[in-house]
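Justification of computing resources. Each target in the renewal requires a structure prediction run like the one illustrated here; the chain below, 497 residues long, is used simply to show the kind of job we budget for.
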Amino acid sequence: MQMTPDYFTQTAARILCCLCGAAIEPNPSNMCVNCIRGQIDITDGIPKQLTIFFCGHCGRYLSPPDTWIFAEAESKELLGYLLKRLKGLAKVKLVDANFVWTEPHSRRIKVKITVQQEVFTSTILQQVFIVEFTVQNQQCKDCAASFTDHTWVAVVQVRQKAEHKRTFLYLEQLILKYSAHLQTKRIQEMPDGLDFYFGHKSHAAKFVDFLQQVVPVRYKTSEKLVSSDVKSNIFNFHYSFSVEIAPICRDDLVCLPRAVAQTLGNVSPFLLCIKVTNVLHFLDVNTLQGGEMMAAVFWQTPFRSIAGHAQMIEYIVLDISPLGPTRGKYVLADVMVARARDFGHNDIQFYARTHLGHILRAGDTAMGYDIKSGNFNDLDVTSMHGKELPDVILVRKTYPERRQIKNSRHWVIKSLEKEEQEGMRRNDLAKAEHDMEQFLRDLEEDPDYRANINLYKAPGATVKPKAMEEDGGDEDDFPEPDINELIEDIQEMKLEM
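Resulting C-alpha coordinates:
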Protein backbone atom coordinates (compact mmCIF):
# COMPACT_ATOMS: atom_id res chain seq x y z
CA MET A 1 0.00 0.00 0.00
CA GLN A 2 1.45 3.30 -1.10
CA MET A 3 1.20 6.15 1.38
CA THR A 4 0.18 9.55 -0.03
CA PRO A 5 1.01 12.90 1.58
CA ASP A 6 -2.69 13.43 2.39
CA TYR A 7 -2.75 10.22 4.37
CA PHE A 8 -0.87 11.83 7.22
CA THR A 9 -2.73 14.63 9.08
CA GLN A 10 -1.04 16.94 11.54
CA THR A 11 -2.86 17.53 14.83
CA ALA A 12 -1.94 20.50 17.05
CA ALA A 13 -0.63 19.54 20.42
CA ARG A 14 -3.04 20.21 23.25
CA ILE A 15 -2.58 20.34 26.99
CA LEU A 16 -4.91 20.31 29.96
CA CYS A 17 -5.78 23.49 31.86
CA CYS A 18 -3.98 23.46 35.19
CA LEU A 19 -7.18 24.50 37.00
CA CYS A 20 -10.21 22.99 35.29
CA GLY A 21 -8.56 20.29 33.17
CA ALA A 22 -10.07 21.42 29.88
CA ALA A 23 -8.09 20.64 26.73
CA ILE A 24 -6.49 23.84 25.41
CA GLU A 25 -3.74 24.93 23.11
CA PRO A 26 -0.47 25.53 24.94
CA ASN A 27 0.05 29.05 26.32
CA PRO A 28 2.47 30.56 28.86
CA SER A 29 -0.14 30.51 31.65
CA ASN A 30 -1.27 26.91 31.00
CA MET A 31 -4.82 28.09 31.74
CA CYS A 32 -7.94 28.41 29.64
CA VAL A 33 -9.56 31.79 28.94
CA ASN A 34 -12.34 31.30 31.50
CA CYS A 35 -9.86 30.44 34.25
CA ILE A 36 -7.67 33.43 33.35
CA ARG A 37 -10.70 35.72 33.62
CA GLY A 38 -11.62 34.12 36.93
CA GLN A 39 -8.15 34.58 38.37
CA ILE A 40 -7.26 38.01 36.90
CA ASP A 41 -9.49 41.10 36.55
CA ILE A 42 -7.80 43.72 34.37
CA THR A 43 -10.59 46.18 35.19
CA ASP A 44 -9.65 46.21 38.86
CA GLY A 45 -9.03 49.81 39.89
CA ILE A 46 -11.42 51.25 37.29
CA PRO A 47 -14.62 52.54 38.98
CA LYS A 48 -17.85 51.04 37.67
CA GLN A 49 -20.04 53.80 39.12
CA LEU A 50 -19.30 57.50 39.13
CA THR A 51 -21.12 60.77 39.81
CA ILE A 52 -20.88 63.76 37.46
CA PHE A 53 -22.33 67.23 37.90
CA PHE A 54 -24.48 69.00 35.31
CA CYS A 55 -25.70 72.61 35.21
CA GLY A 56 -29.26 72.55 33.93
CA HIS A 57 -29.32 76.26 33.08
CA CYS A 58 -26.39 76.41 30.65
CA GLY A 59 -26.14 72.69 29.81
CA ARG A 60 -22.49 72.23 30.87
CA TYR A 61 -20.67 69.51 32.80
CA LEU A 62 -18.19 70.05 35.62
CA SER A 63 -14.61 69.04 34.85
CA PRO A 64 -12.76 69.23 38.18
CA PRO A 65 -11.51 71.29 39.73
CA ASP A 66 -13.39 74.31 38.38
CA THR A 67 -13.90 73.98 34.63
CA TRP A 68 -17.28 73.64 32.94
CA ILE A 69 -17.51 72.17 29.43
CA PHE A 70 -20.43 71.92 27.03
CA ALA A 71 -21.26 68.56 25.43
CA GLU A 72 -24.42 67.38 23.68
CA ALA A 73 -26.10 64.11 24.54
CA GLU A 74 -24.26 61.02 23.20
CA SER A 75 -21.68 63.15 21.42
CA LYS A 76 -18.00 62.41 21.05
CA GLU A 77 -17.26 65.39 23.31
CA LEU A 78 -19.39 63.87 26.09
CA LEU A 79 -17.78 60.44 25.61
CA GLY A 80 -14.31 61.92 25.85
CA TYR A 81 -15.29 63.85 28.99
CA LEU A 82 -16.64 60.68 30.65
CA LEU A 83 -13.56 58.60 29.78
CA LYS A 84 -11.27 61.24 31.28
CA ARG A 85 -13.18 60.98 34.54
CA LEU A 86 -12.29 57.25 34.89
CA LYS A 87 -9.20 56.79 37.01
CA GLY A 88 -7.13 53.71 36.22
CA LEU A 89 -8.09 53.61 32.56
CA ALA A 90 -4.55 54.58 31.59
CA LYS A 91 -3.21 51.24 32.94
CA VAL A 92 -5.02 49.27 30.21
CA LYS A 93 -5.40 49.63 26.47
CA LEU A 94 -8.73 51.13 25.45
CA VAL A 95 -10.15 49.25 22.46
CA ASP A 96 -13.71 50.54 22.13
CA ALA A 97 -16.25 52.69 23.97
CA ASN A 98 -19.86 53.50 23.15
CA PHE A 99 -23.05 54.61 24.85
CA VAL A 100 -25.71 52.25 26.14
CA TRP A 101 -29.26 53.58 25.85
CA THR A 102 -30.88 54.66 29.09
CA GLU A 103 -34.18 56.34 29.87
CA PRO A 104 -33.59 60.13 29.62
CA HIS A 105 -35.45 60.77 32.89
CA SER A 106 -33.34 58.25 34.81
CA ARG A 107 -30.44 60.70 35.17
CA ARG A 108 -28.06 57.89 34.27
CA ILE A 109 -25.47 57.60 31.49
CA LYS A 110 -24.05 54.15 30.74
CA VAL A 111 -20.89 53.57 28.69
CA LYS A 112 -19.80 50.16 27.39
CA ILE A 113 -15.99 49.91 27.42
CA THR A 114 -13.69 47.27 25.91
CA VAL A 115 -10.10 47.10 27.22
CA GLN A 116 -7.06 44.85 26.74
CA GLN A 117 -4.00 44.08 28.86
CA GLU A 118 -1.07 41.65 28.71
CA VAL A 119 -1.48 39.43 31.78
CA PHE A 120 1.31 36.93 31.04
CA THR A 121 4.10 36.80 28.51
CA SER A 122 2.45 36.87 25.05
CA THR A 123 -0.95 36.43 26.68
CA ILE A 124 -3.41 39.31 26.12
CA LEU A 125 -6.73 39.39 27.94
CA GLN A 126 -9.70 41.43 26.68
CA GLN A 127 -12.67 42.38 28.86
CA VAL A 128 -15.92 44.28 28.33
CA PHE A 129 -17.63 46.13 31.17
CA ILE A 130 -20.20 48.90 31.69
CA VAL A 131 -19.65 52.07 33.69
CA GLU A 132 -22.70 53.89 35.04
CA PHE A 133 -22.52 57.66 35.54
CA THR A 134 -25.06 59.32 37.83
CA VAL A 135 -25.94 62.87 36.73
CA GLN A 136 -26.51 65.33 39.57
CA ASN A 137 -27.57 68.94 39.21
CA GLN A 138 -25.20 71.65 40.34
CA GLN A 139 -25.34 75.29 39.36
CA CYS A 140 -22.13 76.64 37.85
CA LYS A 141 -20.60 79.90 39.03
CA ASP A 142 -21.53 81.78 35.87
CA CYS A 143 -25.21 80.84 36.16
CA ALA A 144 -25.20 81.56 39.89
CA ALA A 145 -23.80 85.01 39.16
CA SER A 146 -26.41 85.63 36.48
CA PHE A 147 -29.16 85.34 39.12
CA THR A 148 -27.40 87.77 41.44
CA ASP A 149 -27.49 91.53 41.01
CA HIS A 150 -24.32 93.62 40.46
CA THR A 151 -22.26 90.69 39.19
CA TRP A 152 -21.98 91.82 35.58
CA VAL A 153 -18.91 93.62 34.30
CA ALA A 154 -19.94 94.79 30.83
CA VAL A 155 -23.26 95.54 29.14
CA VAL A 156 -24.04 95.86 25.44
CA GLN A 157 -27.01 98.17 24.86
CA VAL A 158 -28.45 97.55 21.39
CA ARG A 159 -30.88 100.19 20.13
CA GLN A 160 -32.66 101.13 16.90
CA LYS A 161 -34.84 104.17 16.21
CA ALA A 162 -37.61 102.40 14.32
CA GLU A 163 -41.39 102.05 14.69
CA HIS A 164 -41.27 98.25 14.80
CA LYS A 165 -39.03 95.49 16.14
CA ARG A 166 -38.83 93.28 13.08
CA THR A 167 -35.10 94.04 12.83
CA PHE A 168 -34.56 92.92 16.42
CA LEU A 169 -36.56 89.77 15.80
CA TYR A 170 -34.34 88.94 12.83
CA LEU A 171 -31.21 89.76 14.84
CA GLU A 172 -32.44 87.51 17.64
CA GLN A 173 -32.64 84.56 15.25
CA LEU A 174 -29.09 85.20 14.02
CA ILE A 175 -27.85 85.30 17.62
CA LEU A 176 -29.53 81.97 18.30
CA LYS A 177 -28.19 80.34 15.14
CA TYR A 178 -24.57 81.30 15.77
CA SER A 179 -24.84 80.87 19.60
CA ALA A 180 -23.55 84.40 20.21
CA HIS A 181 -25.51 84.60 23.48
CA LEU A 182 -23.89 81.71 25.37
CA GLN A 183 -21.64 83.96 27.46
CA THR A 184 -24.35 86.41 28.51
CA LYS A 185 -25.31 86.67 32.17
CA ARG A 186 -28.81 87.85 31.36
CA ILE A 187 -30.74 89.60 28.62
CA GLN A 188 -33.14 92.40 29.45
CA GLU A 189 -35.77 93.78 27.09
CA MET A 190 -36.00 97.55 26.86
CA PRO A 191 -38.59 99.79 25.13
CA ASP A 192 -36.33 100.46 22.15
CA GLY A 193 -33.95 97.51 22.19
CA LEU A 194 -32.14 94.86 24.24
CA ASP A 195 -29.45 94.90 26.93
CA PHE A 196 -26.93 92.04 27.02
CA TYR A 197 -24.98 91.62 30.28
CA PHE A 198 -21.58 89.87 30.37
CA GLY A 199 -19.18 88.79 33.08
CA HIS A 200 -16.07 89.93 31.18
CA LYS A 201 -15.31 92.91 29.01
CA SER A 202 -13.75 90.68 26.34
CA HIS A 203 -17.02 88.75 25.98
CA ALA A 204 -18.93 91.97 25.40
CA ALA A 205 -16.37 93.16 22.83
CA LYS A 206 -16.67 89.82 21.02
CA PHE A 207 -20.45 90.20 20.92
CA VAL A 208 -20.12 93.71 19.45
CA ASP A 209 -17.86 92.29 16.74
CA PHE A 210 -20.59 89.77 15.93
CA LEU A 211 -23.17 92.55 15.62
CA GLN A 212 -20.92 94.43 13.20
CA GLN A 213 -20.84 91.38 10.95
CA VAL A 214 -24.62 90.95 10.66
CA VAL A 215 -26.21 94.42 10.88
CA PRO A 216 -25.09 98.00 10.07
CA VAL A 217 -24.13 99.46 13.45
CA ARG A 218 -21.99 102.04 15.16
CA TYR A 219 -21.00 101.99 18.81
CA LYS A 220 -19.26 103.91 21.54
CA THR A 221 -17.85 102.74 24.86
CA SER A 222 -17.85 104.14 28.37
CA GLU A 223 -16.82 102.98 31.81
CA LYS A 224 -17.89 103.67 35.38
CA LEU A 225 -15.84 103.09 38.52
CA VAL A 226 -17.70 100.78 40.90
CA SER A 227 -15.16 100.14 43.67
CA SER A 228 -11.48 100.58 44.33
CA ASP A 229 -8.79 99.40 46.73
CA VAL A 230 -5.96 101.92 46.68
CA LYS A 231 -3.68 99.80 48.87
CA SER A 232 -3.93 96.78 46.58
CA ASN A 233 -4.23 98.93 43.44
CA ILE A 234 -7.45 97.11 42.47
CA PHE A 235 -10.18 98.99 40.59
CA ASN A 236 -13.50 97.55 39.45
CA PHE A 237 -15.29 99.12 36.50
CA HIS A 238 -18.58 98.63 34.71
CA TYR A 239 -18.14 98.89 30.95
CA SER A 240 -20.94 99.94 28.61
CA PHE A 241 -21.10 99.44 24.84
CA SER A 242 -23.82 101.60 23.27
CA VAL A 243 -24.66 100.04 19.90
CA GLU A 244 -27.00 101.78 17.48
CA ILE A 245 -28.46 99.96 14.48
CA ALA A 246 -29.11 101.95 11.33
CA PRO A 247 -32.78 103.09 11.27
CA ILE A 248 -33.22 101.77 7.71
CA CYS A 249 -35.18 98.51 7.59
CA ARG A 250 -36.09 96.03 4.90
CA ASP A 251 -38.85 97.28 2.50
CA ASP A 252 -38.34 100.89 3.62
CA LEU A 253 -38.60 103.70 1.06
CA VAL A 254 -35.72 106.17 1.17
CA CYS A 255 -34.69 109.37 -0.55
CA LEU A 256 -30.91 109.57 -0.51
CA PRO A 257 -29.13 112.88 -0.02
CA ARG A 258 -27.70 114.21 -3.24
CA ALA A 259 -24.07 113.58 -2.29
CA VAL A 260 -24.81 110.02 -1.17
CA ALA A 261 -26.63 109.18 -4.41
CA GLN A 262 -23.61 110.30 -6.40
CA THR A 263 -21.31 107.96 -4.45
CA LEU A 264 -23.54 105.01 -5.47
CA GLY A 265 -22.95 105.54 -9.18
CA ASN A 266 -25.27 108.55 -9.57
CA VAL A 267 -28.27 106.33 -8.91
CA SER A 268 -31.75 107.77 -8.50
CA PRO A 269 -32.15 108.99 -4.90
CA PHE A 270 -35.68 107.52 -4.67
CA LEU A 271 -34.90 103.90 -3.76
CA LEU A 272 -36.34 100.84 -2.06
CA CYS A 273 -34.34 98.98 0.60
CA ILE A 274 -34.53 95.31 -0.41
CA LYS A 275 -32.06 93.76 2.05
CA VAL A 276 -30.25 94.61 5.28
CA THR A 277 -27.11 92.79 6.39
CA ASN A 278 -23.96 94.54 7.53
CA VAL A 279 -24.51 96.40 4.24
CA LEU A 280 -27.65 98.27 3.11
CA HIS A 281 -28.93 97.08 -0.28
CA PHE A 282 -31.02 99.53 -2.34
CA LEU A 283 -32.86 99.16 -5.65
CA ASP A 284 -34.46 101.57 -8.12
CA VAL A 285 -37.71 99.81 -9.06
CA ASN A 286 -38.00 101.83 -12.29
CA THR A 287 -34.64 100.85 -13.77
CA LEU A 288 -33.41 97.92 -11.60
CA GLN A 289 -30.30 99.98 -10.91
CA GLY A 290 -29.10 99.34 -7.38
CA GLY A 291 -26.35 99.99 -4.95
CA GLU A 292 -24.83 98.82 -1.68
CA MET A 293 -23.97 101.15 1.16
CA MET A 294 -21.46 100.17 3.82
CA ALA A 295 -22.25 100.97 7.43
CA ALA A 296 -19.34 103.40 7.69
CA VAL A 297 -20.61 105.33 4.66
CA PHE A 298 -24.13 105.51 6.08
CA TRP A 299 -23.03 106.86 9.45
CA GLN A 300 -20.95 109.57 7.77
CA THR A 301 -24.16 110.99 6.29
CA PRO A 302 -27.06 109.37 8.15
CA PHE A 303 -30.60 109.68 6.84
CA ARG A 304 -34.02 108.25 7.67
CA SER A 305 -36.59 106.42 5.58
CA ILE A 306 -39.53 108.45 4.27
CA ALA A 307 -41.98 105.53 4.51
CA GLY A 308 -42.03 102.17 6.23
CA HIS A 309 -44.04 99.00 6.58
CA ALA A 310 -46.91 100.78 8.33
CA GLN A 311 -47.53 103.06 5.32
CA MET A 312 -47.95 100.25 2.78
CA ILE A 313 -51.41 99.52 1.40
CA GLU A 314 -52.87 96.66 -0.61
CA TYR A 315 -53.13 96.70 -4.41
CA ILE A 316 -54.80 94.40 -6.94
CA VAL A 317 -52.77 93.60 -10.06
CA LEU A 318 -54.96 94.12 -13.15
CA ASP A 319 -52.37 93.55 -15.87
CA ILE A 320 -48.62 93.11 -16.11
CA SER A 321 -46.20 93.13 -19.05
CA PRO A 322 -42.53 92.10 -18.54
CA LEU A 323 -40.11 94.44 -20.30
CA GLY A 324 -37.06 92.18 -20.45
CA PRO A 325 -34.33 93.71 -18.24
CA THR A 326 -33.40 91.58 -15.24
CA ARG A 327 -31.21 91.95 -12.16
CA GLY A 328 -30.68 88.74 -10.26
CA LYS A 329 -34.13 87.34 -9.50
CA TYR A 330 -35.89 90.62 -10.31
CA VAL A 331 -37.58 91.27 -13.68
CA LEU A 332 -38.61 94.76 -14.79
CA ALA A 333 -42.25 95.01 -15.86
CA ASP A 334 -45.03 97.51 -16.52
CA VAL A 335 -48.01 96.95 -14.27
CA MET A 336 -51.55 98.29 -13.98
CA VAL A 337 -52.99 98.17 -10.46
CA ALA A 338 -55.89 99.41 -8.39
CA ARG A 339 -56.13 100.01 -4.68
CA ALA A 340 -57.83 97.12 -2.91
CA ARG A 341 -60.11 99.49 -1.01
CA ASP A 342 -61.21 101.07 -4.30
CA PHE A 343 -61.60 97.81 -6.20
CA GLY A 344 -65.25 97.45 -7.22
CA HIS A 345 -66.16 100.97 -6.06
CA ASN A 346 -64.52 103.22 -8.67
CA ASP A 347 -62.36 102.95 -11.76
CA ILE A 348 -59.20 104.55 -10.43
CA GLN A 349 -56.20 102.73 -11.89
CA PHE A 350 -52.49 103.33 -11.67
CA TYR A 351 -49.71 102.55 -14.13
CA ALA A 352 -46.23 101.94 -12.78
CA ARG A 353 -43.08 99.93 -13.17
CA THR A 354 -42.09 97.19 -10.81
CA HIS A 355 -39.21 94.86 -10.11
CA LEU A 356 -41.59 91.99 -9.29
CA GLY A 357 -42.21 90.84 -12.85
CA HIS A 358 -40.90 87.37 -11.95
CA ILE A 359 -43.73 86.56 -9.49
CA LEU A 360 -46.66 88.92 -10.13
CA ARG A 361 -49.55 87.83 -12.36
CA ALA A 362 -52.90 89.39 -13.18
CA GLY A 363 -55.24 88.95 -10.23
CA ASP A 364 -52.47 88.81 -7.61
CA THR A 365 -52.36 90.99 -4.53
CA ALA A 366 -49.34 93.13 -3.66
CA MET A 367 -48.35 95.59 -0.96
CA GLY A 368 -46.94 98.94 -1.99
CA TYR A 369 -46.61 102.65 -1.31
CA ASP A 370 -49.19 105.15 -2.55
CA ILE A 371 -46.81 107.89 -3.66
CA LYS A 372 -49.46 110.03 -5.36
CA SER A 373 -51.74 110.36 -2.34
CA GLY A 374 -49.11 109.93 0.39
CA ASN A 375 -47.65 112.67 2.55
CA PHE A 376 -43.89 112.30 2.98
CA ASN A 377 -42.55 114.87 5.43
CA ASP A 378 -38.94 113.67 5.23
CA LEU A 379 -38.76 113.81 1.41
CA ASP A 380 -35.83 115.94 0.27
CA VAL A 381 -37.16 117.60 -2.90
CA THR A 382 -33.73 119.00 -3.79
CA SER A 383 -32.35 115.48 -4.13
CA MET A 384 -34.79 114.60 -6.91
CA HIS A 385 -33.42 117.23 -9.33
CA GLY A 386 -36.90 117.84 -10.66
CA LYS A 387 -37.49 114.16 -11.45
CA GLU A 388 -41.07 112.98 -11.58
CA LEU A 389 -42.13 110.61 -8.84
CA PRO A 390 -44.05 107.41 -9.69
CA ASP A 391 -47.66 107.03 -8.55
CA VAL A 392 -47.16 103.59 -7.01
CA ILE A 393 -44.19 101.54 -5.81
CA LEU A 394 -44.96 97.86 -5.30
CA VAL A 395 -42.87 96.18 -2.63
CA ARG A 396 -43.93 92.55 -2.30
CA LYS A 397 -46.51 89.99 -3.30
CA THR A 398 -48.98 88.92 -0.61
CA TYR A 399 -51.27 85.95 -0.16
CA PRO A 400 -54.54 87.08 1.50
CA GLU A 401 -56.37 83.79 0.91
CA ARG A 402 -53.63 81.92 2.73
CA ARG A 403 -53.94 84.24 5.72
CA GLN A 404 -57.55 83.14 6.21
CA ILE A 405 -56.37 79.63 7.11
CA LYS A 406 -55.76 79.52 10.86
CA ASN A 407 -52.89 77.52 12.36
CA SER A 408 -51.50 76.77 8.92
CA ARG A 409 -47.84 77.00 9.94
CA HIS A 410 -46.10 73.70 10.49
CA TRP A 411 -42.92 75.37 11.73
CA VAL A 412 -41.81 77.45 14.70
CA ILE A 413 -38.85 79.61 15.69
CA LYS A 414 -37.07 79.93 19.01
CA SER A 415 -36.60 83.01 21.18
CA LEU A 416 -33.96 84.25 23.58
CA GLU A 417 -34.63 83.97 27.30
CA LYS A 418 -35.24 87.63 28.11
CA GLU A 419 -36.31 89.25 31.34
CA GLU A 420 -39.83 90.56 31.01
CA GLN A 421 -40.15 94.29 30.92
CA GLU A 422 -41.93 95.68 33.96
CA GLY A 423 -44.96 97.89 33.47
CA MET A 424 -45.55 96.89 29.89
CA ARG A 425 -48.91 98.25 28.79
CA ARG A 426 -51.57 96.33 26.96
CA ASN A 427 -51.10 98.27 23.72
CA ASP A 428 -47.36 97.53 23.87
CA LEU A 429 -48.11 93.82 24.13
CA ALA A 430 -50.49 94.05 21.17
CA LYS A 431 -47.82 95.87 19.14
CA ALA A 432 -45.24 93.21 20.03
CA GLU A 433 -47.60 90.46 18.88
CA HIS A 434 -48.29 92.37 15.65
CA ASP A 435 -44.55 92.79 14.96
CA MET A 436 -43.99 89.07 15.57
CA GLU A 437 -46.79 88.13 13.17
CA GLN A 438 -45.38 90.43 10.48
CA PHE A 439 -41.94 88.92 10.99
CA LEU A 440 -43.30 85.38 10.63
CA ARG A 441 -45.06 86.42 7.41
CA ASP A 442 -41.81 87.82 6.07
CA LEU A 443 -40.09 84.50 6.77
CA GLU A 444 -42.96 82.57 5.24
CA GLU A 445 -43.15 84.58 2.02
CA ASP A 446 -39.46 85.12 1.27
CA PRO A 447 -37.11 82.10 0.99
CA ASP A 448 -34.05 84.37 0.74
CA TYR A 449 -34.98 86.16 3.96
CA ARG A 450 -35.24 82.93 5.97
CA ALA A 451 -32.12 81.35 4.45
CA ASN A 452 -29.98 82.35 7.46
CA ILE A 453 -32.55 81.40 10.12
CA ASN A 454 -33.18 78.05 11.78
CA LEU A 455 -36.80 76.91 11.42
CA TYR A 456 -37.99 73.99 13.55
CA LYS A 457 -40.74 71.50 12.96
CA ALA A 458 -43.77 72.32 15.07
CA PRO A 459 -44.65 69.65 17.65
CA GLY A 460 -47.27 67.29 16.26
CA ALA A 461 -47.27 68.90 12.81
CA THR A 462 -47.35 66.79 9.66
CA VAL A 463 -45.21 68.24 6.88
CA LYS A 464 -45.60 67.11 3.29
CA PRO A 465 -43.13 67.89 0.50
CA LYS A 466 -44.42 70.51 -1.90
CA ALA A 467 -44.42 68.00 -4.72
CA MET A 468 -46.99 65.90 -2.82
CA GLU A 469 -49.30 68.77 -1.83
CA GLU A 470 -52.73 68.88 -3.41
CA ASP A 471 -54.00 71.69 -5.54
CA GLY A 472 -54.56 74.71 -3.30
CA GLY A 473 -56.38 77.10 -5.64
CA ASP A 474 -55.01 80.42 -6.82
CA GLU A 475 -52.05 80.47 -4.43
CA ASP A 476 -50.20 77.29 -5.38
CA ASP A 477 -46.95 79.32 -5.55
CA PHE A 478 -47.07 80.18 -1.86
CA PRO A 479 -43.36 80.00 -0.87
CA GLU A 480 -43.83 78.46 2.58
CA PRO A 481 -40.92 76.52 4.12
CA ASP A 482 -40.50 73.03 2.73
CA ILE A 483 -39.83 69.95 4.85
CA ASN A 484 -36.16 70.09 3.81
CA GLU A 485 -35.81 73.52 5.46
CA LEU A 486 -37.03 72.39 8.89
CA ILE A 487 -34.82 71.14 11.72
CA GLU A 488 -35.80 68.54 14.27
CA ASP A 489 -35.78 70.07 17.74
CA ILE A 490 -33.27 68.14 19.88
CA GLN A 491 -32.98 70.79 22.59
CA GLU A 492 -35.57 69.08 24.80
CA MET A 493 -33.64 65.79 24.67
CA LYS A 494 -30.46 67.56 25.74
CA LEU A 495 -32.17 69.24 28.69
CA GLU A 496 -33.60 65.94 29.85
CA MET A 497 -30.15 64.44 29.94
